[in-house]
Write a structure and sequence with these properties.
Chain lengths: 114, 233
């Protein structure tokens, strides 16, 4: 309902993240700090779920389109991409298989022991 | 001709292509019918054919880019609503995420090095397993090239969502939570999307995997890279 309030909360958390980065020069993205801040405020019941739910659902559901401009920016990097196409493909694909396997097997093993 | 590179028109074009991609995806489940891929391929060709430099497209793109950061903040909501489930399994979740995160960064860096990539490419590949907004931030902070990171994040997402479940079924990883978490950890939003198709429960755990690996990678990638630096020179 109150979209501006929702925007203010989300950007408030983001601005807090920026402040932490500005003050401490920590290498964590401001947005991650903002996310943890919002999570903390929800846990502490300072912010209620319905105060941010609508806008958040919109942002998460449509996250895909935020991928588009950075992908179009690949135009600028076709040169160096094509030069390293084999390393990029091999490393990305093989590493993805490894991550799926290692994460899944570790979780299953620890869960069965619990 | 100038009108075709008008920022408002380019913004309209981007939104329309994405909406069209969404429509195609809802009609037919085919991996290449992905709204991101469709918009990207058409827009890149559009700019190449009409000789529009990226800087000009960026005039429109920046309005979309702008929402990257707020959308990460919004991920606090699934983390909060699923906290009851997550809390009970915090140890297995965090340990497996930690293993996945370290294996992901170390393996992609070493594989790229062994296959002969330049250092700036190697750095761009390091955060490939996490969702784009986080990967772009990490890429910037470790001096990678954000566009290459974005491309590799897409490749990782598409490839992981295609083969992830097959790999786990072949390797006896049958627990639904383990499968969900692995999909989210390896292939972020696209892995989560794939897991959502199987069931809500898979999807919920996949999004936990996506969120935790995002946090872990943003914290650990710069540290892991510092340890790997001697091998890169």
């Amino acid at each position: 309902m109150n979209s501006i309030k929702q925007l203010a909360i989300i950007f408030g958390c983001l601005a807090f993240g920026e402040l932490i980065v500005y003050l401490t020069h920590v290498k964590i993205p401001a947005s991650i700090i903002g996310m943890l801040t919002l999570w903390g405020l929800l846990q502490l019941k300072i912010i209620r779920l319905k105060d941010v739910e609508g806008l958040s659902a919109f942002l998460i559901k449509n996250m895909g389109i935020f991928f588009v401009p950075p992908c179009v920016a690949m135009i600028n990097y076709f040169g160096i991409m094509s030069k390293s196409l084999v390393p990029i493909l091999v490393a990305t694909l093989a590493s993805t298989i490894l991550v799926v396997f290692v994460t899944g097997i570790t979780h299953q093993f620890l869960r069965n022991r619990q | 001709m100038n009108y075709l590179s008008n920022p408002v028109f380019l913004l309209f074009l981007t939104l329309t292509l994405y909406a069209f991609g969404n429509y195609l995806t809802s009609k037919r489940k085919w991996i290449l019918f992905n709204p991101i891929i469709i918009s990207m391929v058409v827009l890149i060709n559009y700019c190449l054919v009409l000789n529009i430099p990226y800087e000009q497209y960026k005039e429109a793109g920046q309005y979309i880019d702008f929402f990257l950061q707020p959308s990460i903040v919004a991920l606090a909501i699934p983390l909060y609503t699923q906290w009851e489930h997550i809390k009970k399994q915090l140890f297995p979740i965090i340990t497996s995420q930690l293993a996945g995160c370290i294996v992901g960064v170390v393996s992609v860096v070493l594989l790229a090095k062994w296959t002969g990539a330049e250092n700036d490419i190697i750095l761009s590949l390091a955060p490939k397993s996490v969702s784009t907004p986080i990967a772009l931030e990490v890429s910037k902070s470790i001096h990678g090239i954000p566009s290459i990171t974005a491309a590799c994040v897409m490749m990782t997402g598409i490839f992981g969502s295609m083969v992830g479940f097959h790999i786990m079924n072949l390797s006896q990883i049958s627990n639904p939570m383990s499968q969900g978490i692995a999909m989210g950890t390896a292939s972020h939003a696209l892995g989560t999307l794939k897991a959502m198709e199987v069931s809500k429960k898979y999807g919920a755990f996949a999004s936990v995997g996506m969120i935790f690996n995002g946090i872990l990678t943003s914290i650990l990638a710069p540290i892991i890279l510092r340890f790997l630096m001697p091998y890169l020179d």
